[in-house]
Amino acid sequence: MSIIEDIKDTFRQPNNTLKQLILINVVVFVVLIVARLVLTLTVGPHLYNLLMSYIALPSYPASLLVRPWTLITYFFTHEGFLHILFNMLNLYWFGQLIREYLGDKRLLSLYILGGLAGGVLFVLFFNFIPYFADRALGASMIGASACVLAIVVAAATLLPNFTFSLILIGPVKIKYIALFLVILSMSGAVGDNAGGNIAHLGGALIGWVFIKQLQRGSDMGRPIHATFGFFGNLLKRKPKLKVTHRGGGGFSRRSTNGTSSAAAASYPGKPSQHEIDRILDKISSSGYESLSKEEKQKLFQASQKD
């Protein structure tokens, strides 16, 4: 099977958000490597720099106004190998936790909201904080670090006592890993990569707020879900319905595959928000392992049907 077919299969599979996010980042990274090589050897580096200016997030508001899409494209873009490597490893490790306990939709919401928050904070700091004023013009940012740190902090807020086994260190609770990454970003906020580290802090803040709001019964990702649902419905082809006569004298609508629309719409009732909040609180205080089999099943049902 070709690489193209492998990529298509990744996007055809349902509930596969984590792999899809990683794949998008990797594909963009590889395309930029090829583009940089080809353009530099043929017409010079200026054309590659022009290309990057259309996908990197500018700090200058006037540039952002004419290229608003960069508020999204920047967090799928990497140039350094170590940059994308560490981002994708952290996305995979911590994304697995969010995906397992909260579902694919909330993983996607955290990624996008973290990136947006990081980008907005980057622009605000470079235009309203005097220390960065002389750097604002011409500064730009790429990388998924803000998105990844949002997921890291969200996982640590939800499951603070969950442990990872780190090489040469051993088991470490993820709340300490998240704390270390946040402090590292704070220390770099006045360094050479000040803009990137400021964005990290924006992502971290969103990750913490997202889980706290979710535990209070409010899902910050609903606008993201609604947006993707809207465009997803536009792309889906609605099945043709046929009216068939029933033996009892009535009529029912049937899709072209012969399944009754009433039967297709029925599904088991999902857990109430109160039950989910209670389960999330229990995870935060005692860890996922403390849940009963029934509670784990309810959490899984909620993640699939939200």
From TrEMBL:
Transmembrane annotation, as ranges: 21-48, 68-95, 107-129, 141-162, 197-214
Start and end residues of each stretch annotated as Disordered: 244-274
The species this protein was found in: Pontibacter silvestris
Coiled coil: none
EC number annotated for this UniProt entry: 3.4.21.105
SUPFAM superfamilies: Rhomboid-like
Example of a GO biological process term: proteolysis
Record's bilayer topology term: Multi-pass membrane protein
Protein's name in the database: Rhomboid family intramembrane serine protease
Domain of life: Bacteria
Signal sequence extent: none
GO molecular function, one term: peptidase activity
Principal subcellular localisation of the protein: membrane
Record domain Peptidase S54 rhomboid: where: 68-211
Family according to the record: Belongs to the peptidase S54 family.
First-level EC class: hydrolase
A Pfam family per the record: Rhomboid
Taxonomic lineage: Bacteria, Pseudomonadati, Bacteroidota, Cytophagia, Cytophagales
Compartment(s) where it occurs, according to its Swiss-Prot or TrEMBL record: Membrane
Keywords, in A-Z order: Hydrolase, Membrane, Protease, Transmembrane, Transmembrane helix
The DUF6576 domain, residue ranges: 272-305
